[in-house]
Amino acid sequence: DEEIKNSQNKLEQFFTKHLKIHSYICIPLILNDEVIGFLDFSKTESQMKLSREDINSLLVLSNQVTGAINN
Fold it and tell me: Which one has a higher pLDDT value, 3 or 66?
């Protein structure tokens, strides 16, 4: 959808220009099919290169955080 694409571009421009963020990833924390929070990571000096293994590790971390919150 064009409206969503324009919105994403504006958000990307805001991150890059005003916050000086070049790379960003946000992972939802999900408990009982409900989003209870987010883990987000950003880098301001250069772009992050994330492999599939890196993303899988972050997903495992998000599951561990969600488990700790639940207990």
Answer: 66
Q: Write phi, then psi, for 20 (nearest 5 degrees).
A: 60, 30
What are the E-state strand segments in the chain? 23-31, 34-43
22-37 pLDDT, tens digit per residue, is 777 889 999 999 999 9
The number of residues in the chain equals 71
Backbone torsions φ then ψ of 51, nearest 5 degrees = -90, 170
Q: Which two tokens stand for residue 53?
A: 């293994």
**Distance, CA of 11 to CA of 53 (rounded, Å):** 27
Measured distance CA(5)–CA(53) in Å, rounded: 28
